[in-house]
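Troubleshooting: if your tokenizer reports a length mismatch, compare against these two reference records.
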Amino acid sequence: MNHKTLIGVDLGGTNVRSGLVNGQDIIKIDSDRISSKSEEKTVIDQVINSISKVINPEVAAIGIGVPGILDTKEGIVYDVQNIPSWKAVPLRSILEHHFQVPVFMNNDANCFAAGESQYGKGKGKNNLTGLILGTGVAAGLLCDGHLYEGRNCGAGEFGMIPYLDHNYEFYCSGRFFSHFHQSSGEEVSKRAAAGDPAALQIFQEYGKHLSWLIKTILYAVDPEMIVLGGSVSKSFPFFEATLWAELQDFPYQPVVKNIQITASEIDHIPILGAAALYFNQKT
């Protein structure tokens, strides 16, 4: 393991969290609210302030995960969720000029995949899919040891693929529980943990929908491992058996036999995932 000292930044729509990462450990974290409705420079200054609280002279690079559209080659962030003033922000050049270290950027799903590959259950895997199941559905793809972003950093948007009368995100994110069962995934999970048959049945239904998304991923990229993240992944034990049962009709059974499907167990994965962008450089 490379014991570089790095900074990972998780930029959300309302908060920014910066972590100082050394080896496998986060040794310092700063978490601040951002003035999301403020002008562009105000929010940039708040990001810089958060990083400044954890940086030290040993830091080799800064990685930042962004919930929006970005040009990773030019380092430009477009239309960040819940920050209306960020239309086209040259964030990489701003941060590199200020801190005088290399800066790497990507979307939050790609950061998740990179983090699992470097710090989590995906260590040693060259082909991995990090599948986030939360308020939405998104995936990061690790192919031949490196993130595959596509031309516009849009690869892995499996949630937007049409499915039944809507798309996979509608049936495989937290929206499934609120739309079809008028409850939150967290509430259904609590009921399932208490042995409520109705709640357990809801997760069986969810597992069947998720199996079709998993099959789509197997057809498209055939990874070694799929790591589930996001709030719904915490309930994996309640739909794991149904998911595997539904995969038994997949036409290429060697693929099913060899695939590993697991849930992330890493704390602060957005910070570690952002830091892991440093290791994604192509040489």
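Reference record two:
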Amino acid sequence: MGRMARFGAWLGKNADGFIALLLAAGVGVVGLLDDSIDKALRDQVIESGTLLVLALLTTAILRDRWRQEPVETAMRESFAMTSALPERLERLEGVVSGAGRALQDLSVVNVLNGAEEIAKAHAEARGGTDRWIFKGGTGTYLRAVTLPECVAAARRERRALVMRLEIIDPGDERVCEAYARFRRSMSQEPDGTGEIWTPERTRKEAFGTILAGCWYHQRFGLLEIHIGLSATMTTFRWDLSASSLIITGEDPRRALIARRGSFYYDSCTTELLASLEQARRVPVELARSVPLSEEPTIEEVRRLFETLGLPLPRSYTDRDVADLTRKALRAKNPYL
């Protein structure tokens, strides 16, 4: 039964060829008959049968070609897809690579929670770094912790240290008032130093950062320091080392950290350098002509700022200058 079914299926697909075969056999048989059949009738049968066989053969050939065309088309499309495969794979690889970079950037920009976690991140950033870029208000934490510890580590390891600092301009009363007003709007309570923010305190803190930079510059020959004074205030504090970038706002319990090699780290590096380039430059190199004692005297401090082209306000008494010097060299950590 199965053989008959297979034969029937084959016969259905090849009926024209099978009929042509039978007709060809029939024509051959007629051609072999003796002369008992009328010769004209025999010749007519042979000619008609031959034409019919040729017609059936032509039909079979056309059918086979018709069946082959879709196959050839599919093969051409397959070859076309195969030839375009490297380009598609390259595009797919580019998409996967871009997604990987995006995920990597997301994985290295994290939120720091709590003063302890932020302090630990700063300590790790200071460890072994040969550079530090700062942009902020007056640099109180910078004077209290970052600058002395970075200099101490560089001196201990006998390596160079480059520091680029951008703070608000203490000679610009408008920006000092704006900064003090902003800090008071965040909190009316004294910070970790025990003081509240006023325009006068803002001015002294900024002068103190300049004095500290010059003082350390005289005592450590491998320290290269650049200070820029900005006429606009910022609500963030950027601290960038060779390994990470830490951005702190007015809430000391939260900060952002980005690792070196990420898009965010590289972009902020460019931004900070461009911002410092536009700030008013402090000629720190001129400070070497005004030697500063271990505990700078009031006269030394006044002469230093005169030399730098940043004379202290005429209203400053000796007590104000002493207070400024204390802030410069014995600053309190405002986040304790």
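Descriptive notes for reference record two:
- The first strand starts at residue 109 and ends at 113.
- Residues 86 and 92 are 10 Å apart (CA to CA).
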